[in-house]
From TrEMBL:
Transmembrane segments: none annotated. Belongs to the peptidase C14B family. It holds the Pfam family Peptidase_C14. Residues 75-352 form the Peptidase C14 caspase domain. It comes from Urochloa decumbens. Gene3D superfamilies: 3.40.50.12660. This is Peptidase C14 caspase domain-containing protein.
Amino acid sequence: MNNFGGHFGGGRPHHHGTSTMRCKYCRTTLTVIPGERAIQCSNCSSVTRVRRADRIPLPVMGPTTAPFQRARGNKRAVLIGITYAAGGMRRGSGGQLRGPINDVKCMRNLLCHRFGFPSECVIMLTDDQRDPFRLPTKDNIRMAMHWLVQGCSYGDSLVFHFSGLGAQVADDDGDEVDGYDEALCPMDAFQRGPILDDEINETIVRPLVPGARLHAVVDACYSATVLDLPFLCRVARNGYWQWEDHRPPSGAWKGTSGGQAVLFSGYSDGKNNFAVMPDAVASLGAMTHSFIKAVECEPRGVTYGRLLTSMRTIMKSGGSGMGYDMQGPIGAPMQHHKVANFSGVQEPNLSSSEMFDIYRKPFVL
């Protein structure tokens, strides 16, 4: 798996209103994508930041959600699973991801059967779909995110789930404590570029009004702070916990409009090996699997702290040997499948738009 480190590349004007730049790592010539701030190299998979002077603006247009149903229940979800079967994202790694589509199916069953999400209010974007508007392209993911929060109001419970690949690119606006933006890779990332955490935060975090809740579960490398939330919870092995302030040094606002956003993601340094199962064996992502199993095993009203501890235990055990076999409709897609840590996640993380006592606040969807 290549390290998706993004760096500035030099650009030069080109004819016909386009421009090109060089990939920092392999020096491949890249075409600057109109309206985008980063490009993913099709040769080495690294992400390169487009310099401000080289960016090509697009006409200002309002967000559209036209291809998606107008269901407006107070429980809505967008679930995205990408194997990259057609895009060759995992160059040199031996094959496509095994697990994201199963992750999405299991997450949908969890939401609908345990938490009462109406099936018509759950949008699934996977790269095995025949409907072009249900493919996890960059445009479709953007529209789905706008649909999720559009018109949100008090009492809304929203879920965003992504299972696939993440990327990292050097920050250029001073809003990252560690100096790097995180990003999610759509199925057409080589053609359109990744979706940066700045855009994700602006789209599904900032519009949250008082009383609206968003829970995100992201199973991807480099996903620890992919929603750009201002607070990250650190939990020691002995159970001691504290919130770290990740508000941008630039002073940019990354919070909500009065609601709450919580992210379950995975810490990864990008150095772990990525598991690729044989073609005949489907698998499940370790991060998603640990979340679903923990929710199933713990009683209703479990605290965030207890849920996070349970997820860690399940991940360390490899998802087996714990007596946590899922039964019924939620676990149906998991039968006879193996768990694969395709994202290289080392342990689950919790971040939030606000600080709270993780061992007192109940997890509620």
